[in-house]
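I can't quite decide. Please look over this sequence plus structure tokens:

:::
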Amino acid sequence: MHKCLQDQLTNHIIHTHLFTMAEQPLIITRGGASGIYADSTDLAYQQALDDEADVIDCSVQMSQDGVAFCMLTPDLSTSTNAAAIFMDRSSDVKEIQIDSGIFSFDLTWEEIQTLQPQLTSPFEKFIGLYRNPAFKNKGKFVTLAQFLEFARSKAVTGIMINLDNVPYLASKGLDIITTVTTALAKNQYDKKASPQVLVQSDDTSVLDKFKNVPSYKRILNIKEDISSVPKAAAEEIKKHADGVTLTRYSIIATDLLGFTTAKRKTVETLQGLNLTVYVSSLANEYVSLAFDYYADPVIEIATYTHTIGVNGFITEFPKTASRYQRSACSDVNDLKRNYTILPIEPGALVNFTSRPPPKAADPPTPALTLQEVVDPPLPKVAKPQSPPKPTQEAPAPSSSAPAGLHSTAAAVAAAAAAAVALLSLLLTAGYN
């Protein structure tokens, strides 16, 4: 960016904002340090702690035989090399995703353990931007039990348990709610306030299942972009959750050309009801950033910290956030420093630039509705499907001889009778 324009923006931000230093937002991982190693592997979790994350997460998936393990998605074809081995197990599950996939609940844990984890990038499919190929298949899968033991042994500030697709898993005979609550209780997470347990789901009926443990904090994950939260919807959220996770675009409006246009009031509304608000998810790659951030993920973090005031970041690169929080340059009130990492004012850059009007207006982002907040009660867990019964066969002969011998003897006798009859016919014909 031209220095003159950057100076104008800096002066504009300084003179239009009075910053207050609030409590540092929590640094929450997304699949551990999943920007460095394959998500939810032992190496990704260890890297997250080395990078000073406050909360490590486990998105719980289930194998066909009921083993709970950590992985961001149940589709193994995207996060492992399953497509090279189990392509014949691919299926369509529209309740989970549009595309076909190889799903964890169709493979046993023993089969899953034959796979290799795979480091992926959300940008590789569209623009071919990959992450470190040297670490592509590094690490080992982690079960829920191993994750809970690891977190307790490392004395982390907290853990986040993500629960999605619960109704569908129930239809497959997999009781993920009981599996998780039992595992947490076994490791005494329900009895001790430290480490803090955050249970996150996009389903309010799932969150209601954890109401009976006061120390658990329930987080409603609103995955769709929203423009606002009406009072009725916010009050309904409060009945089911202690906090909310919002997308970046639900907090700062951004147009199709990549410029921020406005600060939304979603965070202000929710925090006004004493709900904590987390932003998801942050990455380092410049293509994930609006132009306003100067291709610098640290400035985005500064903006969510000071301009917005979120309670936490959910990020694939926890080290970026921890470096910012440790830096003396993050104190925006200390204007005597030679350099301070200033946040942006959403919409400021686009007002300082001249650009042609867009050919088509950006589609409006809808407000959150009350109907979108409330979910139906969870279905009962179906009984696991039993293997098909063998086809009934005719009763075996009463003789003690093997059935195969009986059938062979009968065939020989029939053939002999036919041969005798044919010979008799030929002889009779020859004499006439």
